Amino acid sequence: MSRAHRPLLPRPSLRFIPVWRRNLRVWRKMMMPSLLGNFGEPVLYLLAFGYGFGRLVGELDGMSYMVFIASGIICSSAMFTASFEGMYSAYTRMAEQNTWLAMLGTPLTLDDIVFAEAVWAASKGLISAAAILVVASALGLVTDVRALLALPVVFLAAFTFGSLALVITAVARSYDFFLYYFTLAVTPMLLLSGVFFPLQEMPEWVQRLAFALPLAHVVEIVRPLMTGRWPTGVGLHLTVIVSYGAVALILATTLIHRRLIR
Amino acid sequence: MSPEPVTTVPAASVASRVSGTLGIEDRPALAVDIRGLRKVYDGTAAVDGIDLAIPAGEFFGLLGPNGAGKTTTLRMLLGLTPIDAGSVRVLGMSIPEQEREIRKHLGVVPQFDTLDPDFTVEENLLTYASYFGLSGPVLAQRIEDLLELANLETRRRSRINTLSGGMKRRLTLARALINQPELVILDEPTTGLDPQARHHLWRQLRRLRDRGVTLVLTTHYMEEAEELCDRIAIIDAGRIIACDSPRALIAAHVEPWVISLSARSARRFIADPSALPARMLEIADSWLIYTADPAAVRAELDAAGLPHATRAANLEDVFLRLTGHDLRE
User: Fold this and answer.
1) DSSP string covering B67-119
2) Domain B255-312 in this protein, CATH class
């Protein structure tokens, strides 16, 4: 009966905030290793790829390879961080620690909880992107203040990737299940969205496929902002990102509801 | 087996027990009002037409073999399981429409540990309170009180995985009380606890009842239900097959005395069971003789030189009589 009455659109309330703060409280306990990863990884990537590869590549799209890759991994890192959070960490809270079950003994609803998890995944994505921005600025790769505008875009994108990850979590039976998603969705997106090399080098059909997925659109907005230019076609890019996020959030909420409320 | 429908409206009013401690004078007379409740999984009814009226302030027990429908019933009270048919009203509000409002006034002690392993004892209470929108000095005081109640003041900064099973249970109960609930639902709260821990928890639960809190509990321990509950419903195959005070259930369903003897002795003794003024039952390695006239039976056993023991009938006898002796999965 209550399932039939359930509206299709999730209706999260402001009560999602305490759930988000709970996750923040846990993160703060392990802040140092977490931040070390956030800062350390981009430094390694930038140095290894930038110096190692950049020497061979020289300039790309009128910028040094270091700048090119810095503006790419800020997007892919947000995707990875949000995806990890929406899968491994959220699954742990849902299936291993029964954290969500405990929350359902309080005035929280699953709509609140799932929304909070998506916002939290977005927050983690934002933290990692901000760390890369700091590192890239310190290395002199980012000089234009417009780069700051990339952060809200990255937050939105990370919300989308977090919501997509929560859809996978909703149907996962174990941690191993997440490898399907990483292999079939995350890695192809990473390689085909213009993070490491320009999409224009790829065959036409690959480009079309890339723009059917969200990450390429994120890169299209973020790279110009990071390199002191204004992006074009922002409306279209944002529409794709938001649409993926909205559909994923609805799907994730519905599937998690079906899984836990039975 | 198709038992007669059992009415579950209590004989005695408990309004007098509603204390002022909670400051709830105008609360609905029934804390729980379930009518014609049904839940079907894959064509099998887990809950098959349950009616249940639990007055505010009562300590109510749900007993039944595994798979009888206890947990499903509790889950429907919490809105964790969709209702297939019938209605559930909790604290005068209806499920599922007013679920969120209901849960503001509810305390839940789940069957499995749902404490947050990333947090300390104190952080667990603080975080859980935040889900109710509680914060500030009032909450700080409440947490102090609950730590004291749970006997965990010295463990406030301990991680959850360093606590014993009994401590975890106490913390779970304390957590369930953070919003000063009018109704507390406990799903097998003492399973796996040692006797000391169990008695400590019992004392807490009685104290709550004395303060006018309504309690609904499921348990596998008959002596626990007999000890704590004002009224008990015995559920089997999704239906309530008996509902009354423990004393009344015993009086209605079994003979007042039980004499037990070993199976080997029994085989020598019982040539013609119908000759005895008693009902006999074989359980595992012993025989139970239910009788209203223990003296007569004991005389027979003594004459045959067989060792035996006599005790008063209890809730377990009622339970076994009503739900049978077959092992449940």
Assistant:
1) TSSHHHHHHHHHTSS--SEEEEEETTEEETTTHHHHHHTEEEE-SS----TTS
2) alpha beta
